[in-house]
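At your convenience, could you comment on the folded chain following this short note?
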Amino acid sequence: MNCCGLLNAEKEPVPLKSVEVELEVRDHVATVVSTLNYENKEDKPLEAVFVFPLPGDAAVCHFSAKIGQTEIVAEVKEKQKAREEYDDALSSGQQAFLLEESDQSPDIFSLSVGSLRPGESASIRLEYVTELAVQADEGLRFCLPAVLNPRYQPRGSEDVCIQVTSVPASLVPYSLSFSARVSSPRPVSKVESNCPLDALQYLNTEQTQATVKLVGGHKFDRDVELLIYYKDAHQPTAVVEAGQASAKPGSLMGDPVVMLSLYPEFPQAVMSSVASCGEFVFLLDRSGSMDGSRIKSARETLLLLLKSLPMGCYFNIYSFGSSYEHIFPKSVEYSQKTMEEALKKIEEMGADLGGTEILEPLKHIYSQPCIPSQPRQLFVFTDGDVGNTKEVIHLVRKNSGSHRCFSFGIGEGASSALINGLAKEGGGHAQFITDTDRMQPKVMQSLRFALQPAVMDISVKWDLPKGVSVTALSPPITALFQGQRSLVYAQLTGQSSEAAEGCVTVKYSLAGHPSQNQLHFSLKPAEDTGLPVHRLAARTLIGSLEMEERESRGEQEEGVKKKVVELSVQSGVSSAFTAFIAVNKGDGEVLQGPLVVRNVPTPISESSLPKQPPRDPLLQLVSLQKASGCWVLDPALAAALGKTSRKVEKSKPASVNQEVWGTILALIWLHGFKMDAQEEWELLAMKAVSWLRAQNAPCVTECVEAGNALLGFNVQKDALGI
């Protein structure tokens, strides 16, 4: 396999001893401070190199080193200059520290600690700011990436591959401690994690501030995920942050910046009409790292997706590894025949296609002509170990006018830059599914988004007092989904009175109806908050300019690059073209002789392969549903309901046909037995209800009563929606 820079660590001492992470969450913005403690226990001077993951959209805004009593704060400089300064310092016997973002993927950083003398300790502090994503259940998700899987470098790629030293999670030689402080205008109702936590401690009686800690002894077998829940969480808000006193007025850092969180509410009438058209293209990763429970879970998810598709739509399924395959030469109309054919192929899919080459199947999908009045929706399932992240995202962006892209990062260490980038540039929605999560609820939420009518003609209009002007810092909003947040950053230039108010209106057209949401906000800046909003705004703008740089050539390209470097240096936020550099120019003794390089290893996930559990009864029932939405009364259905065929036949009211009876029984079973998994079967149940209504069947009430008696439930007819 053409693997990206996997250097296995020899049995050599590792100078990194511990990592301490402090997380400060204010509403939906997280500030993360990581302290890395190094100690050289060898008898020769060392250079320690550590390649590690960070969230892909993080704004890294501070980097410093402390040796004894001396603290050296790094500056942001153009990347090549910073590297040269680092090398020059080391070759002249000085100490230097370099932090740089990988050229291929913004979620991988490299930290070089140059010349630790024998017996010397250093503590490195790095700080970043990131936005927390809203989950289906209204929780806010923070993820501290701890696992870095080797990235697969496609054949013929010209990119320099990322050198990563990896060890299995159980052999990581340093420790992790993690604590979080959460504050919000609204009470914090709970904090959950995929890792063991100490109990939540409230800091005030209103419960608007709380702290929580990770239980000691983290095993590095997974990323640390926190889910934070506030009471009545999602209200549109605006935060105005004052500029930096030392920065020039009129500049991004000198002016106030506003961050708007918008939650569009769509009219109920429009939302209840689920689209009955669309071209659904599913792209499934079948590289070797998807083996075991991941590929099984993906197969079960595809079963649920196929059963939930509306009649009259089109679909196709692609899968990829080092090569790619598709089930049909081009998308086909959804029918009982095509659905059965696809399900048969899905059953045979294994994680047996080698590497992770996602670019070629994407090119093939985009080369297919779109089907008139069937909007294309692309669903990508991958564990995200891709070396050419930027190239892949660029391709999706280029084709964003013709489709929406919904992405799913599967397992520990899935690249956040890839998964979030696909959805952001493809106007869709991203989900992360760790190895302990059920994939189905998250995927069905995205299918519900895909079936929502697309929001068109989105515009943002500002209404501000005289003398105040606005500069948008975020790219234009291209997608809005019910209940999902959109963030908008803007710079406010000019003077306004203390009590001044601004207003922002988001206009859009939904299923042909013009709609708008409005938000009034005070222009008075919040008291000193440490500039997280400015830094996130700068990161957003840097991201847009980096995209522009990929699309431009020649002189224009150089101009854009220069802009990124200027903005990065001015805001103190790193970019693909800059790095943080710190040199200890103190009067310490100059080091003589060569340095020994020590690579600090990162954990790779040890994919768990649990024993195959028996087939879930829900999936057993779902697999029997026909494409039209009905269930046929046969021995397989009786078995899935846990009854004998004779009993099921005998309880059937005389005037009712077998399909109506089978469908009503299946619906009662779902409502009576599987309410906890309702989001997984809701869409296919709606399809069954539509089918029943179309039959105009007699004595439905009698059937529901007989079905309840047979299955031992008491589900009301209204609850079934028939």
Q: What stands out?
A: The domain at 242-265+455-571 is CATH 2.60.40 (Immunoglobulin-like). Residues 532-551 form the longest helix (20 residues).
